[in-house]
Amino acid sequence: MKSIIRFFAIAVIFLTGQNGYSQDPNFHVYLSFGQSNMEGAAPIEAEDKINVDPRFQVLEAVNCPDLNREMGKWYTAIPPLCRCKTGLTLTDNFGRTMVANLPKNIKVGVVNVAVGGCKIELFDKDNFDNYMKTAPDWMLGMIKEYNGSPYARLVEMAKIAQKKGVIKGILLHQGESNTGDTLWPKKVKIVYDNLMKDLNLDPKKVPLLSGETVHEEQKGKCASMNKIIATLPQTIPTSYIISSKGCAVAPDFLHFSAAGYRDLGKRYAEKMLLLLGYKTNNTNDPFIVQAPVGFDQLNPAVPAGKVETVSYDSKTVGTVRKATIYTPPGFSKNKKYPVLYLLHGIGGDEKEWLNGGSPQIILDNLYAEGKLEPMIVVMPNGRAMKDDSATGNIMAPDKVQAFADFEKDLLKDLIPFIEKKYNVYKDREHRAIAGLSMGGGQSLNFGLTNLDKFAWIGGFSSAPNTKKTEELVPNPEETKKKLKLLWISCGDNDWLLENSKRTHDYLFKNNVPHIYYLEPGVHDFKVWKNSLYMFSQLLFKPVDESNFAKYTVLGTTAQTNIRNAKYPQILPDNRVIFKVNAPEASKVQIDLGRKYDMQKDGQGAWNLTTDVINGGFNYYSLLIDGVAVADPSSETFYGMGRMASGIEIPKRDGDFYELKTVPHGEVRIMKYFSKGTNSWREMYVYTPPGYETSSEKFPVLYLLHGGGEDQRGWSTQGKANLILDNLIAENKAKKMLIVMLDGNMGNTGGIAGFGEETLKAFENELKNGAIPFVESNFKVATDSKNRALAGLSMGGLQTLYAGIKNSNMFSSLGVFSSGWWANNPKLSDPQYEFIKNNAQSINANLKDFWISMGGKEDIAYENCKIMMQKFDQFGIKYNYSEYSGGHTWPVWRHDLFLYSQLLFK
């Protein structure tokens, strides 16, 4: 009887909502209050009245006959949004930004009750009468519009709003009239607490966003108040401070201009969107990427699942063991359910999730929102030993071994017990496993090696017990066929992050679909609860692999970042997040071949998320007020004729230039006095593994960089040494020296200095400077069959010129992304004439004449195409290779990878 009464009580509460109304959960309401900056002190401009989305509405708090608006009714939020004759307010762009970044089925409503010049005491319902006695006459008129009590009017309108929507947050901008009042945070708390009580709201679900006054850097007259405002979260833990730094101000230095209100309103919205779990950088596709505020808070108005402890006989351990079971709301013995096995960490047991993670509350709330497939959750003790308590030395070898032994207990004892006791599906498609820390490692170990038992696998902050991914996924194609979902998540400051990253890197290279989810956090339940919230919603229903890249809060720091730099970050789909601190700048852009405008936040940092960027190495620059500079967060590389930033973006087929556990050669920086130029010059020389101890003489590849680069390029940008290390280790390339020359000979004529004299100068340096120095100082063979020449772009022209004219010196030539210019016959015609007249000897001398391009998007493509047509006419033998990617280092790395395998064989 008691259970029946409880069921009906919960049903009534659930149907009526916490305020007794049938609320639309997709109508989000925000209460706004404060003084003049919330009221709106800037003129309303034309752009503020047009293109207002009807999804953004205002609840009129006063009667405005001139606007044809009645108090207590909703209207499209065309300003003014406070009283009838107030100006533009921050709530205008707050609402616009919100609806632009939320799904189309969500509407946003604001209720704005503000009084210019008032102290916070005006909103204290128990003491505002005393404040009113001292209020100036001009303020009394405004207060009168609210029937003598702005707070009462705010509550009155909020209750009307609750009939239609759900209050999601409270916006406050006040403090100028309380400047210097250290009790201000406590006074704000009185108002906030009263609103929570009078409107039956949960503060853990309804945050308070409070904005700064005009900043001191902008000569704000009340800027000192910002230090007090900054302490508000110490008094109200669910409050957040919105920076005003950089928001344009009015001449009185008390208020913001229209542009300033728009900027400030956008900042309020961006914070609120984050609290709701949405991304704010992709307005075309709103997407929840993290749990919203209040997701783990008990809601008495929603049906609750049941938590119980069960005992099962473990033949593996030889004892009776315990597990915690969660059954969903409305659980029926007559219905079949899928099962999630949820594992704990090294210091926990079958109660750890229950005590630290509140999974039952998280799941209950998700069921109430219709976001979850009904499932049974089994939380076992993952320490398979007779004394499985989390006591004593939890790191003792036998206790650690017990976590590995649990695999047998799980498969042979626990799963059969669950399938006998509960009405559950017994196929792999309806069975999931996930866990935190040590349990995350177990989940990956057990799940990926038993894909006949599990189709849904999640590792949250997986511990070092995680096996090498090569062991877990020895056959990527087979794994892809069986997996429904593989989820890997971790906090960005978790000391165990490397385990998750290692697994992700292998899966990425082998094109195994998975979600790699990074978020701000450490090794704690804040991260794990969020992982459960996100992961559980994907289980036992169709999943769209095309969305996997969206499921992350943060990107992975680029390997080209300087030590400890958090940005740039690379998202799973190869978009890049940049953050640059330049508080005094008026405009900042990222130049990645395409110029991107960055957006300034309240802390003086400029932010950007790019489109998808090609994998591999990419040059980029910061443009700060039009000046191109290197990003202090990234390594710099000599390119584009100066030091520029570079970013290395993961590339699935980039395994050939990765640092691996193979014998490594050396890159030596050699200064030499060149007899060719009668000057000191520099070359980089790669010597292969075993060079020092070998008595043999090695062949040599002379390798040339492109325009705007120098001898460092092939080593730093091109990774030539790693490419050869890996090829030699696989017996795919001969051991050789690679001599990386400085091809810059000065601008002595022709287009960009590539005239006949420049090319002739390089030929002279090669023959009389570089080659003699190498052959005098290194153990190298000195005949033509052991000598090759190759180069990219400008280096390709140098190879064409010096190599073809001296084909008797080389057995092979490699021309990457280059070709004689079709529009410069003065330079090219003599070269073609020489080639035509010497075709027979060129073909006889060269074993390999290898030409490659980066596809049609390569800037040299047409020149090369015309050149090869000429070669065909002259009967020149060559091989052509094409690798899509344009005129970029990823292409040239691939060129070296292929070309070097042909040499000296």
TrEMBL record:
A single GO molecular function term of this UniProt record: acyltransferase activity, transferring groups other than amino-acyl groups
Record keywords: Hydrolase
Hydrolase as UniProt keyword: yes
InterPro entries: AB_hydrolase_fold (IPR029058), Esterase-like (IPR000801), Ig-like_fold (IPR013783), Ig_E-set (IPR014756), Mycobacterial_A85_antigen (IPR050583), SASA (IPR005181), SGNH_hydro_sf (IPR036514)
Domain (Sialate O-acetylesterase): residue spans on this chain: 27-273
SUPFAM superfamilies in alphabetical order: alpha/beta-Hydrolases, E set domains, SGNH hydrolase
Organism superkingdom: Bacteria
Protein name per UniProt: Enterochelin esterase
Organism whose genome encodes this protein: Flavobacterium phragmitis
